[in-house]
Amino acid sequence: MENINYVLEPGHFMLDGGAMFGIIPKPMWSRVHEADEHNRIDLALRLWCIKSKEKLIIIDTGIGDYHDEKFNTMFNVRGEDSPLAKALAEINHTPEDVTDLVISHLHFDHVGGIGLKDGENWVPVFKNATLHVHKDHYDYALNPTERDAGSFHVKNFKPIIEYYENNKLIKWHSGEEGNLIKIGDDELKFKCSFGHTPYLMHPYTSQFIYLADLIPTSNHVHVPWVMGYDIEPGVTTKYKRIFLDFVMEKNLKVIFEHDPKFWGSSVLKNERGKYLCDNTGEAKNQAAYLIS
């Protein structure tokens, strides 16, 4: 059986457009990404799902479904209850089938779906999975700067990570690149970027790469278009070039975690050396769909 690649879309949310595009003036970014009356732009919560003969792997978990009304209103969170279970049902699977869960980084919109509230306790959505987390990033997430502390909802994810650790279901990763999981004749590997957050882990195979918040939408392929959320925007631009060259060298297709219109794209350079999206894949209004 060849590996099958899906994307899961457990919901959408909105963030401030100025924050998403940093120093890029609104008259420029608003031409390609429309804002609402509150200056918010629509964003997808898009996960990568890989199915092989022996593995069912999910990368990232979305924002979760347990937030209060104030949070959901502020970020205009849209999604059903138990969104990951419903997305997996679209491809005839349940959360219990997931063998491996890879977390790119621990910001609330990437790890929020890792757990469920059971009364006052947190329980994991994927009880049988092996959890893959970068140890240096986890250590940073527990002690971030004041500037980015609000992005790490430690009280929500820490009990779940402790569950995996206590049940010997966690694999800590280290270094700036390495191997994650053997999947048939292919392998899921990772490379780390810096700038957005330390040790942001980007999983990739011979076909696809998940760039998470390094290049969250197709518009962020433009190197200077860096989010205001990044703790070191200048460092981000350096790593964007490194990764875009890597994508072209390996002939990979990028999966855009937050683009509401396109699930992914290959990348090329024009005659002026500018990176552009090529052969984009349009997003579908579905909780799960096939990309290969």
The total of beta strands comes to: 16
Distance between the termini: 13 Å
CATH superfamily heading: Ribonuclease Z/Hydroxyacylglutathione hydrolase-like
Q: Unreliable stretches, pLDDT < 50, 5 or more residues?
A: none
**Total tally of structural domains:** 1
Mean pLDDT: 97
Q: Tell me about the biggest sheet?
A: 7 strands, mixed
- The CATH topology name reads Metallo-beta-lactamase, Chain A
Silhouette? globular
Question: Pairing-aware structural class of the strands and helices?
Answer: alpha/beta
CATH class: Alpha Beta
Widest beta sheet: strand line-up: 8-7-4-3-2-1-16
Secondary-structure element string? EHHEEHHEHEEEHHEEEEEHEEEE
Amount of beta strand = 25-35%
Provide a descriptive summary of the structure in words:
It is a single chain. The chain is of the alpha/beta class. It has a single domain, classed as Metallo-beta-lactamase, Chain A (4-Layer Sandwich), CATH 3.60.15.10. It is 22% helix and 32% strand. The strands form four sheets. It has a seven-stranded mixed β-sheet with strand order 8-7-4-3-2-1-16.
